[in-house]
């Protein structure tokens, strides 16, 4: 029985409708991640957290690093590695 001639095409039609809704959902999620600050790569929007809230402008890299270590945002190994990297960068011409 053919059900009005649509029996063979109904499966394909339902697949296409499902793919349309899936693509629409993916598009909406992608737009939200791109537009919403703080989502996605983490580089969208201004920095946040305790360091950003208390960071006075005009601090040197060493002062920022000292403050981050003092408030516990980074551990000692990270502090020493970054201190060394800053010193090496300053020595380069």
List the helices and strands and how they pair.
Layout: H1 10-35, H2 50-53, H3 61-70, H4 76-91
Textual characterization of the structure:
There is one protein chain. With 93 residues, this protein is mainly alpha-helical. The chain folds into 2 domains: 1-41; 46-93. The chain is built from 4 helices and no strands. It has helices spanning 10-35, 50-53, 61-70, 76-91. Helix 3 runs antiparallel to helix 4 (76-91). The longest helix is centred in the first third of the chain and has 26 residues, at 10-35. It is rod-shaped and about 75 Å long. The mean pLDDT is 79.
| Class computed from helices, strands and strand pairing | mainly alpha
Task: Tell me the number of structural domains.
Answer: 2
Distance between the termini: 84 Å
Biggest sheet overview: none
Shape: rod-shaped
Uncertain segments of ≥5 residues (pLDDT<50)?
none
SS elements, strand count: 0
From N to C, what is the helix and strand string? HHHH
Alpha-carbon Rg, integer: 27 Å
- Figure out the total of helices: 4
Roughly what fraction of the amino acids lie in strands? under 5%
How much helical structure, as a percent, in the residues? 55-70%
User: What is the mean pLDDT?
Assistant: 79
